[in-house]
Amino acid sequence: MNDPSTDIDDLSAGAPAASAAPFRAGFAALVGRPNVGKSTLLNALVGEKLSIVTPRPQTTRHRIVGLVHRPEAQIAFVDTPGLHVGGKRALNRAMNRTAGAALVDADIVVFVVEALRWYAEDEAVMQRIRDSGRPALAVVSKADLIQPRQLLLPFIAELAARHPFLGIVPVSARRDENLEPLVSAIAALLPESPPLFDAEDRTDRDLHFRISEIVREKLTLELNQEVPYGIAVGVERFEIEDGRPVVHVVIWVDREGQKPIVIGAGGTRLKRVGTAARREISALLDGRCHLELWVKVRENWADNAAALRSLGLE
User: Fold this and answer.
1) Residue 180 pLDDT > 50, yes or no?
2) Domain end residue (candidates: 189, 223, 243)
3) Among 119, 154, 189, where does a domain finish?
4) Strand-by-strand arrangement of the 244-253 sheet
């Protein structure tokens, strides 16, 4: 009489091994009009502040990659400037080119639209997605602001009728609602590929970039309706003195008359900006730092292609 345990072992040995699901990796471009919540979404997905966030439209000027690592996939989310119409400056055109290139190069496009809001700029972005021919998934942002949630259903149905999206996911980045289903949906749509970045990476942006963006965020919040579009920020020097980082940051304005606005009466405004920025930069560096801010004039830099290139905006 056969030993049952032997029979089970024999069957297991003869059966084909279950194949592991293929690893997937690729780029998912977050696109949409200005101020729909792309940067807030990127930060929530990555679990770390990579893109600065302000109430001002067109805060994001660069292509910023934030990485999400899962056992089965690696997603390189690409935050992009808001695609917009009517911007007359060279800076506006450069931002639109940056967003357009990220859209065309992406493995999947993530179209971010604000819950229950649809404007001409949303339609213009939608047309760019159609023209690109890239596969697309839609995200309805700020869904937590809509109560009761059933009010979203007609809006989602209208969105589905506009384009053959591979999925439509309502989310709240502020409350971390529905983010994991979104990540899973995007991961499943990426091509089979080995990882494109090291497992420890969170972004493709270096420390100097992140420091300059922190300063620009604090300036934009402080200046409110004044001159944020005429401002660029860059790290001029980063040194270690007596064991402590010393960071020299230049704030560029595009007219002489803007310089006193940024500095403020008796330097009070610049001091407030420096205090707020230093606090966040110190957290980024895991230790106290010394921050020096300098305001300089570069006439009409936002309309100068060479200046845009030197500032990393082109």
Assistant:
1) yes
2) 189
3) 189
4) 231-241, 244-253, 290-297
Q: 231 with 263: CB under 8 angstroms?
A: no
Residues 151 and 224 in one domain: no
- Whether residues 75 and 40 share a domain: the answer is yes
User: Could you tell me if residue 151 is inside a domain?
Assistant: yes
- We report the CATH number of the domain holding residue 243 as 3.30.300.20
**Judging by beta carbons within 10 Å of its beta carbon (0-12, 13-18, 19+), is residue 131 exposed, middle or buried?**
exposed
- Identify whether residues 185 and 220 lie together within a single domain: no
* pTM of the predicted model as reported, rounded to 2 decimal places: 0.87
Asked whether residue 155 falls in the same domain as residue 294, the answer is: no
Round to whole Å and give the CA distance between 123 and 147: 25
Q: What is the pLDDT of residue 314?
A: 66
Predicted confidence (pLDDT) per residue in 2-52, tens digit: 443 333 333 333 334 445 789 999 999 999 998 999 999 999 999 999 999
Place of tokens 């493995």: 107
Closest by Cα among 197, 209, 199, 213 to 76: 197
- Tokens 């405004």 label which residue? 269
How many domains is the chain partitioned into structurally?
A: 2
Burial zone of 93 (CB within 10 Å; 0-12 exposed, 13-18 middle, 19+ buried): middle
Whether residue 228 is preceded by a cis peptide bond, meaning omega within 30 degrees of 0, is: no
| 157 backbone φψ class: left, alpha, beta (φ>0; ψ -120 to 50) | alpha
For the chain, the distance separating the N- and C-terminal CA atoms, rounded to the nearest angstrom, is 79
Using an 8 Å Cβ cutoff, are 80 and 99 in contact?
yes
Tens of pLDDT, residues 277-292: 999 999 999 999 999 9
Whether 279 is covered by a domain: the verdict is yes
Residues 170 and 211 in one domain: no
Question: Taking 70 as the threshold, does the pLDDT of residue 181 lie above it?
Answer: yes
The residue segments making up the domain with residue 142 are 24-189
| Distance in angstroms (rounded) separating the CA atoms of residues 106 and 261 | 40
